[in-house]
Amino acid sequence: MKHCIITLFCVFFLISCGRDYDDTWNVIGEFPPPIELQGERILKNEFGILNVYSAYSYIITSTIRDTLFHIYDENMKYLGGFGKQGQGPFEFPQIGLIRDAIKHRESIIVCAIDPARHNNYGIDLLSTLESGEVVVAHEYELPWDLHGAYLSFYVDENTVIGTYRDHFYQRLDGNFGLFYNFQETDSIEIYPLYKLDIYSNDGQPVNDPSAIMNINSHASAISPDRSKFAVQLMYTPRLEVFTIGYPHPSRFLLKAKPPKEDFDLESIRQFTAPKYYNEIQATDNFIYLLYSGHSEADDEIYQLEKIVQVIDWDGNPHNQFLIPAQYDITLFTVDEENGYFYGLSHTTDTIYRFEYGSLFSEFSMNN
């Protein structure tokens, strides 16, 4: 796969130069009514939790504790941990996160992001657990030109994909979009993403970098087979889906009548603008979106219900699952093989497990 992404780019670039790009937003069909789920609290000894991630039935928590990453099996048995905060090799100057994994032959490679060094470490999970030492399968550092990167994902030994916002590190280079970094040639390609703007009452654009960055907050996910990439803006129901190697996305509206995208500057500064989506997760089959519909300010004050919306990569809706307000989740992850959602409440520092698999199968058979 070493040279296939570059080859695909050459082919798709020549094709796209020969025709106009279709910028249509496709309205997805209606979701069925949401099915309410009940959760159970798990991993009661965990605390200081930043993120929870399901990696092929292993559960990994990212924390602020002395050992940053904790690994559990599907029965919630603790298997071990790794990662320290510090300046040494495979230590993290800032708290790292794990939110991506690759199955490679008999190994599972989990990708640990070091936000301070702009590194992404591919950790061989099973070898690390067996040896008690961090076993690195791959490592890459983003070039300086991509130090505005929001998230990055390993595609193959030559290719990294991610999303870029120029307001990080005050780059202010005008770029906002999807990037490819080809390590072998040290080259970068950036393609625009849909972008929201803020205007004053007299219709003039507002030049407030912090507010513009906030209103364009987004979440992204890659399919485990590394063929698809999805980007979801949080403040509007718009989803962009890319085929890896092709620069133009398929674009989907998740509401038939999206709201007017005229944002008041004060509502952005005070976090009172409605936020549609908190999180996105992806499998080879489906995209899972955590729908909120509430402002961040309300989320801080109240316990609010969330809805997991499930669509396939072609934009067809499949199901909705309601997470009641009592669980107050802010992030989630998906174990599709076993049919579980894992939800994290930052308010209560608690992880819940929700069984959805049998309900999803019933819906699929009825469609």
Give the arrangement of secondary structure elements.
Blueprint: H1 4-17, E1 25-27, E2 35-36, E3 39-42, E4 49-55, E5 58-63, E6 69-72, E7 78-82, E8 84-85, E9 91-92, E10 97-104, E11 107-114, E12 119-124, H2 125-131, E13 136-141, E14 149-156, E15 159-165, E16 176-182, E17 187-192, H3 209-215, E18 218-222, E19 228-233, E20 238-243, E21 250-253, H4 265-269, E22 274-282, E23 286-295, H5 296-301, E24 306-312, E25 317-323, E26 331-335, E27 340-345, E28 350-355, H6 357-366
Parallel strand pairs: 1-21, 2-25, 8-9
Antiparallel strand pairs: 3-28, 4-5, 5-6, 6-7, 10-11, 11-12, 12-13, 14-15, 15-16, 16-17, 18-19, 19-20, 20-21, 22-23, 23-24, 24-25, 26-27, 27-28
Description:
With 367 residues, the protein is mainly beta. The chain has a single domain, classed as Neuraminidase. It is 13% helix and 44% strand. It contains six helices and 28 strands. A five-stranded mixed β-sheet has the order 1-21-20-19-18, with no helix packed on it. Strand 5 and strand 6 form a beta hairpin. The protein starts with a helix and ends with a helix.
